[in-house]
Structures are given as C-alpha cells and as structure tokens.
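Structure tokens please, single chain.
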Amino acid sequence: MGNRMANVVIYVMAKQNVEAKKDEVLLGEAASIYCENSAIRARASKLRIHKFREGQESRVVISMMKIIEMLTALEPGVTVESIGEKAIILEKIPEKKYNGHLVPWKIALVAAVSFFGTAFTIMAFHNDVGISDVFVRMYEIVTGEKYPEKITYNGSLYDTREYLASALESEMGASYSYEALKAQAIALYTFAKYNNYNLSEEAHAYGKTPSELCYRVVDDVMNTGYYIAYGNDVAVTPFHAMSAGVTTSYYNVWGKGIGTTVPYLAGGRKSYGDYLDSNYKSVYTITSDDMKAIAKEKLDVELTGDPANWLTIVTHDKAVREDIGYVSSMSVGGKIVTGYDFRIKVLEGKIRSHCFTIVYTPQS
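Here you go.
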C-alpha cells in the first residue's frame, strides 16, 4: 500500500482570489486538482481548508504549504505538486451580493460599457480625420440625427464647422470666456436648425476669420450634439448683444405670432447690467432731405409738410418707462410700420435697437 501511494502525485493549481458563499471552503472550490487515482482526487477536492466563523475576519490568506501539509496528512505517502499560486486569498461574500435585484442591471451596464467602449476604440483607430468626426458619428448613431455638411447663409453654401466658427467670431470673438462662447455657439446652431439650415444676412453677423478658440468651441458643441429644445421641438433662439434694460417679446420684434405662445420669448426679462454698457445709449442723426428720399425709396411714401410730423410713434411696450419702450408701431408720413421694420428695412440697421425716441431739430 505504501509503495503504491509513493507513486501517486496530486497536482494542485491554486486560484489567487476566491469568493466564498458558504462558511466552509473546500479545496476543490479554491483550486484545480488532478490525480490519476480518482478516489484520492475526490477526497482531496472535499478537503476543508478553512471555515469562516462569526466575528472573525471575512478575508484570510491560506498558504500552499499549509494545504500540502493537509493533503499529506489526508493521504500519507502521496506527492503533492503545486503548479499555481503560492497562496490563496479567501473572502467571505454575503449571499445578498449575488441575489440582489440590481445584479441584472449591473451586468447590463457592464455589457453596454464594454460594447460602446470597444466600438469607440475601433472607430477611433480607423479614423484618419480626427476624434471630432468620431463623436459626430456616434451622435448620429445614437440620436438618428445628422449634422448637415453645409449650411446656406445669404444664398451661399458654407461648411457647417466653418459657418458656425465664423458666425461665433463675428458675434462675440475670442475675448469672451469659453463657456460664454459655447452658449453662443449652441444658440447659433439651434437657430440654424430651427430655420432648416437656411439663413439670411439679417439673422446674425458673419464673415470674420475664426480664431483657434472659436474652432475649439464649435468642435466641442458638434461633438456633444447640443442644441436647445422646448418640449419636443427645436427652440427658436434669437440673440442680441444687449437690451434696453429689459427684453421684449418675439412678436414685438419680428411681428410673428410665435412670441405670444412661447413663454421663453414673452419678454419682460430684466438685465440691469446693460445700463452700464458704453453702447447702451446712442444717437443717430439724419437730415430731413435724406429721410424724405429714404421714405420714398423704401416705403413709396411722399413726405410733405412740416418734418416735425413725418415720424410719429404710435405704440410701444413701455419697457424702459412710461414714455419709452420697444416700438410696436409707428407712422411714416401716414403709413404704419413696425419699429423693427423701420430700423431694418427703412434705416438698414443704422440704429442698434427698435427701442427709440424721435426728436426733430429744425435746421438753422
């Protein structure tokens, strides 16, 4: 019997870390065991190597030397060959860790992170243009929306990135903070999206060569896919440099009914800091002869009689005070026009706002 045992070898490949669900830990749970003698292999697998007790540490280290000693005591005369770790770390895990209701969600989360992480790695590896294009492509895949390659501005097609960067530079420029520029870029893109990527020169400033900072901001916005929505619809996002101290409604500016139904364009938002701007108040002077010629050209109105009566404000919203506000309607030689149309179509934007008063000074 002794001679036969001397020829028996038990090979033990121990695991480095073992999570135990039960108090008693068997060698077969902590290591892989091989022996030509199946009976010895079965007994070795059922050898208890540790028992966790209440109040003791939940993590222990079992040396392979101790396991070899236990095996030789179980089967005298056998040879034990350790071909794995030199020690086994046993940790008692509460049963609820495996049975919690969050386990399926955790598995799903890990699977999703692995899937998208792998996809991103592959896309980035094969992309020769830049990481920006990878994010844009991911945005298209997830949302089903695609950034247009071109945007129409004043009848001409422009690359979307170049268009946004140039508009951002023209409206604000690199002297502003990164987050302020980012907010403006999002408003620019949203405004373009709302208008089906077809805008006129009245929409905003454009044409300056973009700075590196403006390019970075636009890339950031395009990478994230940000735009402004109201409910399920793309928001309309007109913007301005300053107000007369309080904003007016969309309807009062452009004469379109949307301003009466969308709360965020209803006006009445105060901005006291605008009072401190050096451009808060400005004066534009025009001679009566020039005004007469412009009225004829733009409105087909013949201005006659006393020039003091040619221009009359009919209604305004009293935004600044009782006698000053954003002009809703005015008379030009008896023809009623909106304050916005007078500013843009008649005076071609030479005054900065349609919050104005009119003063006539007779020529000497």
